[in-house]
Specification:
722 residues; 22 strands; five-stranded antiparallel β-sheet; Beta-Lactamase; ten-stranded antiparallel β-sheet; single chain; 4 domains; alpha+beta
């Protein structure tokens, strides 16, 4: 109703010519005379002392007019009323109003200009100083990180020199061992590998007051016979590592001595490496040990390797090695390993100011990546060595090019380089010892934000100065322009709050009746308030509709995020969610559950034989039959790769075992040919576990089921372990 009344009101105003910008032709309803020819000294009167506003004072909400009541203005010498003052049409109340407006405008413009110039200069000065200071801090951070790690390289070099010297002294001595004595320390396992006996790792006391532990040794089964010199070097290395290892393990993961005949003696209390290494492991085929052989290192240089993944220890490592030759023959290579966890903690994990988007990485001069916060997974695929040119990462390759082109020399301070590709600053510092460069990457946006934050104080001061100046100007101009503008401001504020009764106030009527811009502006404010109100209502309706549509779309996207794109079953994210809920309910006694983890047997050979498209089809078929078989008793999830996991609600041990047997039978019933499988068809192996309050977490239960699945794999596959 109000909107319709407002529309009709605007139509009436349009018909009467209201709102046009001609200030000399305003026509009044009810016989009001034209006011475009009023001269100084003429009074403005009306028969009843009232002027009815022409639509500008009509309330569009109810369509009723609002009358302006002005003081009675009698003609000269008529009645008791004094003559009304003349009305001037020169701006705000004549000359005074126009002058005040001009003065206020000029003062404001000069004040703004002065504030912008002074504040801008101060802001820029502080900004540049803060930016330079941050870059200096970044260089100091890189230098500090490098300097804090210098002792590690010196310690590795000094320790291995001592070990190499003592080995050569022993080797040149007349110390010898019989073959029988050798085999009291070593044994040959069923697979043909030679290993140090278990007791030397668990701990042995060869003499009173002495206790040695943490030593293991390994010779690959490609060495069918061990000659006397090889056996002697193995025992000499054992005694050296036993004596020197415990004193040098405080900063390194281990201490070892490798041999070109595919042998190694290692002190590593946390890892029985020599007892767990694969019997057919050929260490000299790996990049780390191969780099010490005379064929690949004719200069016989010691040095640090790049980052690599030790498949036996399942650790990321970097290694320092010192080849030891005697009379032109390669005898042994002492070495120390540093685990990635230590490296990341000291070099990569700590970021300058913990700034968001900042990170550190380490590269070698020949293009190898030593450490990086999110590039470690790629190393496994590349054989354990991170080579930047094989990572298919243009950003990292571009950064390496910048590092190479701007690398500081030996003893030089770190250099700051701008990476425009990713909008980063790179602080490049040379690390003493290996040919490595430590790089601290700092987002330019973060630097600018910190610089702006400091410089913002100048801006705040400039604004406060401007406000103080304007307060003084306001006090000076109050009497000339403040009063009419104050009335107009108060009424416009009331109109914006919907308080339309303010239109009948005496102060507003006095201002609005003026034949100048203030009166027109007052009436325009009223119309604008109603227009804004209607627009706000329409906008709120649109926002409500769009919010509802967005909520529905988000629900659909959330459901899709829990589905596996290949098989259509639930994915790992859905499994984590449902397992947490099932585990929580089971702890509260609201129903038990069981897990069945299935893994497709010989799936990689299947992909190699039939192709990945057929492999994908097999996964979809297995997911389909498992979903149909489980039905309403549980849910099936793709856990990762060829692994599928089932949550069986309300199942005990027998139920879970029978369900797993049915799943295996259903997969076999598919009869999918598999030439690379001993069974001739595609099969799965499974591990089964039932909830128990003894599990400390859902993850522990999953690990238990996973280990049982691997028992099924080890037991010949196509079976379950419950």
């Amino acid at each position: 109703m109000e909107r319709e009344g407002h529309r009709k009101n605007r139509e009436r105003e349009k018909e009467r010519g209201f709102g046009m910008e001609k200030s000399d032709a305003m026509t009044k309803r009810d016989g009001m005379a034209k006011s475009d020819a009023m001269t100084e000294g003429e009074g403005m009167t009306e028969k009843n002392g009232t002027i009815r506003g022409a639509s500008a004072f009509e309330n569009p909400g109810d369509g009723q007019g609002v009358e302006e009541t002005l003081p009675e203005a009698g003609r000269a010498g008529e009645g008791k009323n004094a003559p009304s003052p003349p009305v001037r049409e020169e701006g705000f109340g004549g000359f005074a109003g126009s002058l005040a407006k001009e003065v206020a405008l000029r003062v404001s413009l000069w004040a703004v200009l002065l504030m912008v110039v002074i504040t801008g200069l101060g802001y820029w000065t502080l900004f540049v100083a803060r930016e330079e200071q941050t870059l200096e801090n970044l260089a100091d951070f890189a230098a500090g990180r490098v300097e804090s790690e210098r002792f590690l390289f010196d310690l590795a070099r000094d320790d291995l020199r001592i070990l190499a010297k003592e080995f050569l002294d022993l080797y040149r001595s007349d110390v010898s061992f019989s073959e029988e004595e050798f085999w009291t320390y070593f044994f040959r396992d069923d697979a043909g590998a030679v290993r140090l006996r278990r007791k030397y790792f668990d701990g042995t006391a060869p003499a009173k007051g002495l206790f040695f532990r943490g030593i293991s040794a390994f010779v690959g089964n490609n060495q069918k016979t061990l000659d006397e010199d090889f056996r002697r070097r193995l025992l000499l290395s054992y005694f050296l590592v036993t004596r020197l290892g415990p004193a040098r393990i405080d900063r390194f993961a281990n201490l070892y001595v490798s041999m070109p005949e595919n042998g190694m003696v290692i002190y590593w209390p946390e890892e029985p490496w020599g007892l767990t290494a694969r019997a057919d492991l050929v260490m000299t085929d790996g990049a780390v040990i191969r780099s010490t052989l005379q064929e690949f290192n004719p200069e016989r240089k010691p040095g640090w390797t790049g980052l690599y993944y030790d498949l036996t220890a399942e650790h990321w490592m970097i290694t320092y090695q010192l080849p030891v030759d005697y009379e032109g023959r390669h005898l042994v290579t002492p070495g120390v390993d540093v685990t990635l966890d230590d490296l990341m903690e000291r070099l990569v994990a700590r970021k300058m100011d913990d700034a968001e988007g900042a990170y550190n990485f380490v590269v070698t001069s020949d293009g190898k990546l030593v450490a990086h916060p999110d590039r470690l997974h790629k190393a496994k695929e590349e054989g354990g060595i991170l080579s930047i040119d094989k990572l298919d990462d243009p950003d990292l390759a571009a950064q390496y090019a910048l590092v190479s082109a701007n690398a500081p020399g030996e003893g030089e301070a770190p250099r700051i380089v701008r990476d425009e590709r990713r909008d980063l600053y790179l602080a490049v510092a040379r690390m003493p010892g290996p040919e490595w460069f430590f790089v601290a990457a700092y987002p330019r946006a973060e630097l600018l934000a910190r610089a702006h934050e400091s410089a913002r104080l100048v801006l705040v001061f400039g604004v406060l100065l401007f406000l103080a100046f304007m307060i003084v100007v306001t006090l000076v101009l109050r009497r000339s322009v403040a009063e009419p503008l104050g009335v107009l401001r108060n009424v416009s504020g009331a109109l914006s709050r919907g308080e339309y009764a303010a239109l009948s106030g005496g102060a507003f009527l006095a201002v609005a009746s003026a034949r100048n811009e203030v009166g027109l502006l007052g009436r325009a404010f009223r119309d604008m308030g109603f227009a804004v109100r209607d627009a706000n209502r329409l906008l709120e309706e649109k926002i409500a509709a769009r919010t509802s549509e967005l909520a529905a779309a988000n629900l659909k996207l959330e459901e899709l995020s829990f589905r596996d794109g290949l098989t259509g079953i639930y994915n790992r994210r859905a499994f984590d969610r449902d397992l947490d809920e099932a585990f929580r309910r089971a702890l509260l006694g609201q129903g038990s559950f069981a897990l069945v983890l299935c893994d497709v047997d010989w799936f990689k050979p299947y992909n190699d034989t039939y192709g990945h498209d057929e492999g994908d089809r097999v996964l979809r078929e297995i997911a389909r039959v498992m979903t149909e078989n489980v039905g309403a008793c549980g849910d099936v999830y793709r856990y990762g790769g060829e692994e599928l996991l089932v949550i069986l609600r309300g199942a005990d041990g027998d139920d879970a075992r029978h369900a797993a047997e049915r799943l295996l039978a259903e997969v076999r019933a598919l009869g999918i040919p598999h030439a690379a499988s001993p069974h001739g068809i595609v099969t799965v192996s499974a591990g089964v576990g039932v909830f128990s309050p003894e599990y400390q977490s859902p993850g522990e239960m999953v690990r238990e089921v996973d280990s049982r699945m691997y028992l099924s794999k080890a037991g010949g596959r196509n079976r379950i372990t419950a």
